[in-house]
Specification:
about 300 residues; alpha/beta; 3-stranded mixed β-sheet; 9 helices
């Protein structure tokens, strides 16, 4: 899947990166972000070398083999080493062993967070930030997403923490990618082009077919599905049943009115004659359990 997605986004060859319908594939988050303690984003990943190489690295390696030109670093640490400062992971393994020639970017504020402090109270002292900036770029991070650390790289060089050759290598990789994208010859894009593609009938039909083919029904006791048109009473329970954004997932873009159908709305439209009772039940990001049952017209 990683290979297919990479080729779909970028094309079969690097030359296609400059085409107007291609973009850079970013493999993320590297690595083992899904193995963090308690499922917490940025928590430590308590995994060993076998699990790392057998479970978490193969998809990344497949994307690299398919030509992916960008990798985003994960917040977490592996075996006590934060990924943003893990030279073995970002340089020895990915660049030297796998032959990855693209760019490595940080996750949001990931370099600044190497200071091991409250993310909402990150220091602005250039000397402190330059220490983690040097750690990250020496490890193999080419540019930062948000954060202030990489704005202090000049300080890191002047203080002797980071050789200028390391900066040059990172800059060269970024410039190489910009040349592959054709940004120097064609720095602008047709901003109206996406309007005719995103949400178009062919795209909606493809998305619908994809959704149908990826559904997995674990069990269908008493032939509960498909819903019978003779059903008279239906209970729908849970905070995700009537929330489009929860249905789409985190990081979803703002949606236009009537852009989607929730589970509750879909069942209401399918069975207008049925008595449908909906209970929110609980909160998503809080401990609120006051959402008891209520009648939905």
């Amino acid at each position: 899947m990683a290979e297919a997605v990479t080729r779909g986004l970028q094309g079969e060859t690097l030359a296609e990166l400059s085409y107007p319908d291609k973009i850079v594939a970013v493999l993320k988050h590297c690595c083992a972000q899904g193995g963090c303690v308690g499922g917490h984003n940025a928590g430590a990943a308590p995994i060993g070398p076998r699990e790392l190489h057998e479970i978490f690295l193969p998809p990344v390696q497949a994307g690299v083999a398919a030509g992916a030109q960008c990798i985003m670093v994960a917040y977490n640490e592996i075996d006590g080493i934060p990924c943003h400062a893990n030279k073995w992971l970002l340089t020895s393994l990915m660049r030297e062993e796998w032959g990855f020639a693209g760019v490595v970017m940080s996750d949001g504020n990931g370099i600044d967070c190497l200071l091991q402090c409250d993310i909402d109270k990150l220091p602005t002292d250039a000397t402190e930030l330059s220490k983690v900036a040097a750690q990250a770029i020496i490890a193999g991070v080419d540019f930062g997403l948000w954060g202030d650390a990489f704005t202090t790289l000049e300080t890191a060089v002047n203080d002797g923490r980071c050789p200028i050759e390391v900066i040059d290598s990172a800059v060269a990789r970024v410039l190489r990618l910009k040349f592959l994208l054709g940004l120097f010859e064609n720095p602008f894009v047709d901003e109206e082009r996406a309007v005719g593609v995103v949400g178009s009938i062919p795209e909606r039909e493809s998305s619908l077919q994809l959704a149908r083919e990826t559904l997995v029904l674990l069990r269908n006791e008493n032939a509960a599905l498909p819903l019978s048109p003779t059903l008279q009473r239906i209970a729908i329970i849970g905070p995700n049943a009537d929330n489009l954004y929860n249905q789409l997932g985190d990081y979803s873009a703002p949606q236009l009115p009537n852009a989607g159908v929730t589970v509750l709305q879909g069942i209401q439209a399918l069975l207008p004659q049925a008595q449908i009772r909906y209970a929110t039940g609980c909160g998503i990001r809080d401990m609120d359990r006051s959402g008891g049952p209520g009648w939905v017209k």
